[in-house]
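Quick check before the chapter quiz. The format below is the same one you will see on the exam, so make sure you can read both the input and the output lines.
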Amino acid sequence: MTPAAAAEASHDPSLIPLDPATTRQILATLRGLPRPVLEGFTKAFRKRFQVPEEATSIADRILQKRHHDWIEAYLVQHQQVAA
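Here is the expected output.
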């Protein structure tokens, strides 16, 4: 982590970078989603975190605790809807 990123994260815990193992776990979970759910998730993530249309993937955008927390909340909400 760069000193600037560390200073920023110390003021806002949601900006703490994710460790590689957590990122891999998130991506594995997302790959296991049914296609319509994954497409809905991708659209929602792009909108929430302002990922440009020209970005071919969102996988490299899942970097911070705020992304992890949002993804968990999205998946929990979706499971409740599907149940």
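If your answer matched, good. The CA atoms of residues 21 and 27 lie 10 Å apart.
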